[in-house]
Each structure stands twice: as structure tokens, then as C-alpha cells.
Amino acid sequence: MAWLIGETLRGASNRRWIAVPVVASVMMSALQGLAHSTDVDQGMRRVRAFALEAPPRTDIERAGVWDFLGIRNYRLDRYHAAADAYAHAADYAPSPRLLQQLALAETMAGNLERAQEVYHRLLMKDPNNTSGWLGLGAVASRIPDPDDSFRAARKVLELEPNHVGGHQLLDYLRKTYPGRDTVGAGR
Prior knowledge:
Number of helices: 10
Distance between the termini: 72 Å
């Protein structure tokens, strides 16, 4: 369009005055777009509306949009909003990564029992997920649910015998709950 307007104005000296209003209108549109994009909350509302409003999106598109909202809210330390977004994403595409992100967001939001449930859901899908077992053990130790925490710590070490975090969790549990660990007492 810029080229077309320039060519039109080049040959018509009596229409050159129109160049200033054209440039001003283009600049205003660009500035409005830039100003609109700097408002994080407004941008988040627009992305959320994209997922919820017409036209209907595919499940993959919805999962991607909710995943983006989860990531963005998590980075903004808005853990409740991140957990909500990840829960929507996991409804559409319950991948181990999305479930792990949901569990982390629930943990950071202080919803430890909900995080524990999500970790169990994750581990049903991916039983060899070491970081999932470690997350479950850590969350269960904070609830407290020592039996679930001991079981998770032992599973981490079963999957990776030299896992530092697994050993640290098991040591912590043995100090905090002496005599509760009846299985796998040795390193």
C-alpha cells in the first residue's frame, strides 16, 4: 500500500498534501498496536478469549493456548492462574509435561493435596518419570503424607540409584519420621 500511495502521489503534484494525513494515520495505527501490546493483563484476557470464544478451536489449539497462559502466569508468579490454565490444557491434552507443569503450579499455589492428585495422575501415565516421583515425594512430605512420600522416594532411587534428590528426600524423611521407613532401609 505504501508503494501504491507513493506512486499515486509522485505524478500528481496537486495531491501531495494527502501524504501528511496518510503518514499520520499509519503512525497512529502502529502506535496504538504497540501501546495495546504492552498491557500484560489485557493481552492475557485476549488470549483467554481466543481459547473460549467463537469460532471454536480444535483441542490441540485450545491445549496450546492454555499451555501458553500457564507458562506466562507461572513466570509472572500468578500460580493460581497458572494452575487453572494448566488444568484446562491438561483437559485437552493430558501429556506428562502438562501434568507435571500443573502439579508444579498447584504446589506453588499452596494446593498441596491437589498437586499430590495430579502427580498420581502423571505417574499413572508415565510410571518411570523420576522427576514426577520426586515431586510427589516432596509434596507428600509437606502435606504430610509420610507413607506416600517414602514410597515416592524409594521409587526415585529404584529408577536412578544415585539420584541426589532422591537420597536427600529419603534422608529427610528418615530423620523426620524415624521408624516409619520399613522398606529399603539401606543406601
